[in-house]
């Protein structure tokens, strides 16, 4: 049976689909988070050099990865909205920005918590840290710019430009540890393999999956509110069961 | 006792309180804000419907 995916690019149909998808991502997010914490703290061994402090990576690395991926997806949606004038794409970009900003904040915060015992400093103006801080500012700029313009369609276009221009920062974050001599360590996990203990990998990848599920849930929940807000003049919104109550 | 000494004597407490508790608090605040926003939006839509679609 062929599914007409374009049907779900309309806010009218996507609203219902998003509502149905939320529990399918929310429940696995909680379960995977619990599994990750169990493996990370009860199974994974103590690191020979870093002791217990390395366990911060189980939240730090997934938060950092999510902050970068969410920005690229957000910029992609914003570009789609700008080029094809699709309403839902711009709504998705707006819905993703706060979650991406929070992941960037958690990445910086947990990085500082790790840096203090390992480097002896909460913060250094290292290329990786600084570019991640710029990513947080780009998210905040996107949110602030969107909120400062009353007309939603104009706000979408203006903030889309910022998102697209800002996306150049994401490869800079990723390659900063290769391009410059940074204090921040290079990638531990590469396509060629990794030296990490298997339990450490399991804890980290399980938390990464949990964070992905969480980000999807938050985006879907937020986009439903945005759709309701923007489509409030339409008949289909007033006929929704939750509005009828 | 300085923070440097305390964190080295209690690394797991430092990790839990500093990283995981803060991260989960951030997630909880975000979830609460999104739920609150939905409630407010639904209330606005109902008010507009009751007012006959006029803002």
What features would you describe in this structure?
- The complex is a heterodimer of chains A (245) and B (55).
- Chain A has 245 residues and is mainly α.
- Chain A has helices at 11-43, 57-84, 87-119, 127-148, 152-166, 169-179, 198-230, 235-238, 241-244, and strands spanning 189-190, 193-194.
- In chain A, strands 1-2 form a two-stranded antiparallel sheet.
- In chain A, a hairpin with a 2-residue loop joins strand 1 (189-190) and strand 2 (193-194).
- The longest helix of chain A has 33 residues, at 11-43.
- With 55 residues, chain B is mostly helical.
- Chain B has helices at 3-9, 11-50.
- Chain B is rod-shaped, with a radius of gyration of 22 Å.
- Classes of the chains: A mainly alpha (245), B mainly alpha (55).
Total of helices of chain B: 2
Q: Categorize the overall geometry of chain A.
A: globular
**Strand arrangement in the largest pleated sheet of chain A:** 1-2
Number of strands of chain B: 0
Terminal Cα separation of chain A, in Å? 36 Å
Main sheet properties of chain B? none
Instruction: List the chains of the largest interface with their residue counts.
Output: A-B, 36 and 28 residues
The number of helices of chain A is 9
Report the uncertain regions of chain B: none
Beta strand count of chain A? 2
SSE class of chain A: mainly alpha
Give the N-terminus to C-terminus distance of chain B in angstroms. 60 Å
């Amino acid at each position: 049976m062929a599914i007409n995916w374009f049907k779900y690019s309309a806010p009218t149909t996507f609203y219902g689909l998003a509502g149905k998808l939320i529990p399918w991502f929310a429940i696995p997010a909680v379960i995977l988070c619990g599994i990750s914490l169990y493996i990370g703290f009860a199974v994974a061994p103590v690191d020979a050099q870093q002791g217990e402090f390395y366990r911060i990576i189980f939240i730090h690395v997934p938060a950092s990865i999510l902050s970068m991926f969410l920005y690229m997806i957000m910029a992609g949606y914003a570009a789609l909205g700008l080029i094809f004038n699709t309403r839902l794409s711009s709504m998705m970009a707006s819905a993703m920005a706060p979650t991406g900003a929070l992941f960037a904040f958690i990445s910086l915060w947990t990085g500082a918590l790790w840096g203090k015992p390992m480097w002896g400093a909460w913060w250094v103006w290292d290329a990786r840290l600084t570019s991640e801080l710029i990513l947080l500012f780009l998210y905040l700029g996107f949110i602030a710019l969107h909120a400062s313009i009353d007309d939603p369609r104009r706000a979408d276009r203006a903030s889309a430009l910022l998102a697209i221009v800002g996306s150049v920062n994401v490869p800079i974050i990723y390659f900063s540890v290769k391009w410059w001599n940074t204090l921040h360590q290079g990638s531990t996990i590469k396509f060629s393999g990794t030296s990490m203990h298997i339990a450490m990998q399991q804890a980290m990848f399980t938390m990464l999956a949990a964070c992905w599920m969480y980000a999807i849930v938050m985006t879907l929940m937020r986009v439903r509110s945005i759709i309701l807000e923007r489509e409030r003049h339409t008949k289909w919104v007033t006929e929704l069961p939750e509005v009828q109550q | 006792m300085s923070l440097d000494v305390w964190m080295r004597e209690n690394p797991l407490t430092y990790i839990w309180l500093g990283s995981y508790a803060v991260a989960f608090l951030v997630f909880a605040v975000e979830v609460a804000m999104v739920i609150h926003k939905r409630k407010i939006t639904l209330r606005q839509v109902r008010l507009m419907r009751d007012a006959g679609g006029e803002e």
